[in-house]
Specification:
26 helices, alpha/beta
């Protein structure tokens, strides 16, 4: 951006001469106004910011020195200031320097002298901008570090104070998860594709918050081991929506519409518990994580609120059919079909004796699902909680559970009992060996996790998770790397054309193959063959 210049002299010839003495545009400047005296310049400066003022020292109405003194004392402008004078008087120069005058040039103005001043001002502004940018980055880094510490609940008083001073977090704070919902689809994608989607989600969030008067700092991204790879977070506070006289629900609805744009899969929002101080934000974060666990079984709605989904009053808590549910859990663990059927019947019999709201049905269902997760982990200590939830995500219909479908619950309970048998047999390692064999023998074919999961009777999302755990990368990345390695062997051992090699390892599009090869080997297939041959 060009620096804006204000020329001030009561002699039109001088002003015109200055305007053509140097190539202002080439030097990065733009003359925005020419004034005949200091008062006229002062009036202009009150409503128009400039970067450089060049003013004659002697003028009617208001001199250049008076203009300089006024704008400095009244803090009207901090622009660079150059005094022009026909008097080589140290007293004038001394007065100018006192009010941060950049230079004192004697008339007639020489081109070389003016250029030196212009370049000095431009250089100084560049340094100032760089210092300001460095300071901004340092502030941002410390702010992010402090936010992470607060979210984790391990922070210092200085960090809490810094966040409070640098962000408008007055009241009604909530930590909010923004989650990409199709976990099965994410498992089929390469790591770079997932990262690109998450980046787009974060950018959508930042764009929305900026438009609503917020700042980028409210969007929480790249928090190591705080966020999952398919979600970002942000801090919400009452002023974001109350100033606009809208409800929290209206604000979240608008946000969901904006952040869902250009996303290739559904997005849903999890709103954590309301807290009143930034020092308590870890409580809200934990509540959002708890809420995430509740809704990961199947997304029936787009926005979830902790207070609505999780919290129940003491008067409602006695409606949990814990004894019957615990008997059902025991029957599932033993894979006892008869006991499963009886426990389900007993559970619904107890349900029929009380007037249950939808929230109470959800409470009983969620209790059962949480206990089933812990039951699965107890069978195989290598299984993570999110892996079990992936299985549930594809095998549970929340609609049927919420309707109180007895037949559906029997069916699911029996299926889950078989799933626990699989875990006890530790089938994951055997399945992975078979999947690895499939890749070795059929890497040129269109292999997908979904088809392999169906072939070996394993949930595809679960298969993707244990594959990543075993090999440290997604199935798609592993397959792509394997194909490129096979292509490299063919390039060195045969004289086949690049297109033939591409087709033999499973790439019908040669250009796509070349790009993938460069991505993994750092050079084109032709160059690889030439350098290694």
């Amino acid at each position: 951006m060009k620096m804006k210049v204000l020329l001030v002299d009561d002699e039109p010839v001088i002003v015109q001469g200055l305007s053509v003495l140097v190539d202002w545009e080439a030097e990065g400047y733009e003359i925005v106004r020419m004034c005949a005296n200091g008062q006229e310049a002062l009036t202009y400066l009150e409503t128009h910011p400039v970067d450089l003022i060049i003013a004659d020292i002697k003028m009617p109405v208001m001199t250049g020195l008076e203009l300089l003194k006024t704008i400095r004392e009244q803090q009207i402008s901090d622009a660079y200031f150059i005094i022009l004078s026909g008097y080589n008087d140290f007293h004038y120069a001394q007065s100018a320097i006192r009010y941060s005058c950049m230079d004192y040039i004697l008339k007639p103005v020489q081109k070389s002298g003016l250029l030196e001043c212009l370049r000095s001002a431009a250089s100084d502004r560049a340094r100032s901008k760089q210092h300001a940018e460095d300071a901004r980055k340092m502030r941002q880094a410390y702010l992010s570090q402090s936010l992470i510490a607060l979210i984790r609940g391990k922070y210092t008083e200085n960090q809490a104070q810094f966040v409070q001073e640098n962000m408008e977090l007055s009241s009604g704070l909530r930590y909010v998860h923004i989650h990409m919902g199709n976990i099965a689809m994410l498992e089929e994608m390469a790591d770079q594709e997932v990262a690109a989607l998450r980046e787009r989600l974060a950018e959508n969030c930042e764009r929305f918050l900026f438009r609503r008067g917020g700042m980028k700092e409210y969007c929480i991204r790249d928090i190591a081991d705080c966020e999952e790879e398919n979600e970002v977070g942000f801090l919400c506070c009452d002023p974001m929506f109350l100033d606009g006289k809208e409800t929290l629900e209206e604000f979240m609805e608008e946000m969901l519409g904006e952040i869902s744009k250009n996303m290739e899969m559904p997005v849903f929002i999890l709103v954590g518990k309301r807290v009143e101080a930034i020092s308590r934000i870890s409580t809200s974060y934990t509540s959002a994580c708890t809420l995430r666990n509740f809704v990961r079984f199947g997304t029936l709605q787009k926005i979830y609120y902790y207070e609505e989904e999780i919290q129940f009053t003491e008067s409602e808590s006695f409606c949990l059919c814990k004894e019957n549910l615990d008997r059902l859990l025991q029957a599932i663990e033993l894979n006892d079909r008869a006991a499963i059927y009886k426990s389900v019947d007993d559970f619904y019999e107890e349900m029929s004796k009380a007037v249950f709201s939808e929230k109470m049905i959800a409470m009983n269902t969620n209790y059962l699902l949480f206990q089933l997760i812990h039951l699965a982990i107890a069978q195989d200590e290598t299984v993570r909680q999110d892996e079990v939830m992936l299985y549930m995500n594809e095998h549970i219909s929340q609609t049927e559970l919420s309707k109180g479908n007895r037949t559906y619950l029997r069916k699911f309970a029996c299926e889950y009992a078989n799933y626990l048998v699989q875990l006890r047999q530790n089938v994951s390692s055997g399945v992975l060996a078979m999947v690895e064999k499939e890749i070795c023998e059929h890497y040129a074919e269109n292999l997908t996790l979904r088809e392999l999961g169906q072939k070996y009777y394993v949930n595809s999302s679960y298969l993707g998770q244990i594959f990543r755990k075993q090999y440290g990368q997604s199935f798609k990345d592993y397959l792509s790397n394997y194909r490129i390695c096979k292509a490299a062997e063919l390039l060195l051992k045969t004289d086949k054309k690049i297109s033939q090699v591409a087709e033999e390892v499973g790439y019908l599009d040669t250009d796509y193959f070349v790009n993938k090869f460069i991505e993994r080997k750092g050079c084109t297939p032709s160059k690889y063959r030439k350098n290694r041959g």
